[in-house]
Amino acid sequence: MDLVTPAIGLVFWSVLIFLILLFLLYKFAWKPILGAVNDRNQSIEEALAAADRAKEEMVKLQANNEVVLKEARAERDQILKEARDLKDKTVEEARVAAKQEADLIIKSAKEAIANEKRAAINEMKDEMANLSVLIAEKILEKELGDKEGQKALIESLLKQTNIN
Prior knowledge:
- This protein is an all-alpha fold.
- It has one domain.
- It has two helices and no strands.
- The chain is rod-shaped.
């Protein structure tokens, strides 16, 4: 059992060296170690607080982003609606303008047709008058070619006319 039980001198010197080491550590190392640990704890707490602030700011930014996104969507919808309205208005204006132009072309064509018709009728009348005069001339030439025929024609015309 001597091997397992330490000698008193060894225990004394071990305790003495331990106490001296403890005193030296307390005197020179304990405060800097505790200061470093406290500094480390404080920096960890500050980092956690900064992380919490960053998390809160991120939540605010995310909410703000959602608001901005909703506004952007609303603005996009408004722009699309205005574009559709403008397209419909432009199409309607073009349709009205095309109808007015078509009506104007039709009116102009009708006037041109009426003018051509009047001109054709006047030309026909002139042609018929010329033809009638030519026919009457030929008939009168033939009938008035002899003296007997002329006398008979004059008498028949006098009989037909009532002179009062």
